[in-house]
Amino acid sequence: MTDQANSAGSGAGSAIRVLLADDEEMIRHGIRLILRHTDGIDVVGEAVNGAETVRLAAEHRPDVVLLDIRMPVLDGLAAIEPLIALDPRPQVVMLTTFGDEENVTRALRAGATGFLLKDEGSQELIRAVRAAAAGDAVLSPGVTGMVIRRMLSGGGAGAAAPESRVVGLTGREREVLVMLGEGLSNPEIGRRLGIGVGTVKSHVRSILEKTGCGGRVQAGMLAHQAGLMG
Question: Can you tell me the distance from the alpha carbon of 104 to that of 146, in angstroms, rounded to the nearest whole number?
Fold first, then answer.
């Protein structure tokens, strides 16, 4: 179900393109109302299941996908991998009405940019979309502590030893990885290192490729697990 009217509303080439995926019509309606009246954000499509989400993402090339976890046909967790395989890769922010520990960590390990509870306020939703579009991690305050505790405990890791995954990083990439572990945004990293945001993004992409991390949240956790945080 595309929302062509919303897409045409901005007319600004720099607007953040958002694909909304949720099988509950009222949820989609509420989020759409918030975003369509926000400058610089266009809702370019809506989906009611994971399979439709992947199809519409390939068609509309959104910058950000707001993705419900529990949907028919293909759930949100299963949709993450084909979504982040697209080129260009959209940032995937998971939406849910509960702080389910297992689903949160599964989503982040699969490569989701972040996790937002549906009962967050409108300003938090807008902030999350803008942060995700900028390549920054998005974690609802209600689940941040839980995510850190579970991921640092190594639950469900299944990957190579953390220390071996960071061996191939350059010195500057290690610096950036540590700052990801501190939860800094790209502009904050750039200011600390005296480099541009574009250069920071290039370092983050290289870090993700070399370490096999699905996203910057994973990379931040890896910095802790590999003992880089001092």
Answer: 9
What is the per-residue pLDDT for 1? 46
AA identity, residue 43:
V
Three-state DSSP at 46 gives: strand
Q: Model pTM?
A: 0.71
| Cα 70 to Cα 144: distance, rounded to the nearest angstrom | 20
Nearest Cα to 24, choosing from 56, 62, 71?
71
Give, in order, the Cα–Cα distances in Å from 137 to each of 108, 151, 158, 185.
10, 15, 22, 8
Asked if pLDDT for residue 154 goes beyond 70, the answer is no
Q: What are phi and psi of 66, to 5 degrees?
A: -90, 110
Judge contact between 60 and 44, C-beta under 8 A: yes
